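Structure ticket #2291
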Amino acid sequence: MAKRVVTAIDVGTTKVATIVAKVDNSGGIQVLGSGVVPSHGLHKGMVVNPEEARRSIAESVRRAEQASGVRVDGAFVGVTGRHITSMNNKGVIAIPRSDGMVRAEDLKRVLSSAQTIPIAEDKRILHAIPRGYTLDGQERVKNPIGMHGFRLDVDTHIITAHVSSVQNLVKCVRAAGVEVDDLILEPLASGEACLSPEEKELGVILADIGGGTTDIAVYKDGSIYHTAVIPVAGYQFTSDLSVGLGLPFDVAESMKKKYANVSPNLDPKEAENTRIQNGHNISYVDLCHILRVRMEELLKLILLEMPTSDYMTLAPAGLVLTGGCSNMPGLIDLSQATIRMPTRIGEPSGVYGVTDVLSNPAYATGVGLLLWGTRSQSKTWQSRKRAGIFSGVMAAFRRLFR
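Resolution: structure written out below.
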């Protein structure tokens, strides 16, 4: 297989990260370069100013092209926002052939059967992911092709998105000169980058705490089980500091990055007023208390989004926190004390090359978009390139929202 180039664009509320990588003959993913710029024109993961968003995306792509020496024509793009909804549904079909052997077309039919659900007119299916098959009562079949039976069931996780919200994002990316190879829900991408196969099999909760949203993905029995998006994240932390300490928003943001600790050691010396830029004096204790209360609230909101209150049975592997806000010191201790679950910080992995910066949890989604795009949708990606189809935004949406 010839080497090919793949690009991921994480269009976030606080930053736009473009990562260019090369897939080698063994399937390894080598990062060639990246471009990270502040994000403008987005709020809570959704476009609110198309022109500002376009400029941010274009500048990020330009820097990635300059760093990698590769022209970016198409990219895998992450999607998030409070318009995202999800559900699990089952599909069932009969195997009509006399030999009862399951073929690839049967998998397509049963997946199509699972997608016959009522959807609002302004929404379309973003992902329909098979979780597992049941063949004549035999459960937890991962790939029934070639097996024999008369009835095939599939358990499917279905994710829907608001048409206009996704259209606005796609138009901004295309206006920056980049075609959309595929749209991927961001917590699915983060899960690819941060979770181990053992965690997914046992049961784990992933929470990507970004700038505008906290994206949740629950894995069970090796597959996605539940997804959700909470419109509370780093922006709210900074806003609380700005209001609570009477500081300009940009000063509060800088203060959060420099001094944040949600489980501080309340040593008397540390508790003294700490002087920061612009002549502002703030109390270290007050700063940490505000952030701690907000983080406790967010951790509880994450559990409220779970489909069951029996968290430990659902996710024995515990909680994996990633995203930019997971870098706050003291977060693991606070999480374990608040929700009584094993907690770790998820750092992205699975790629090699120029990855010094990308090992930070803030880039989990970007790295995950590369992994999802190359490993889970590799054959589809190649066929689209060879056929030269899906040019233009309407063609992209005929594919995506079929």
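Closing remark: The chain has 13 helices and 19 strands.
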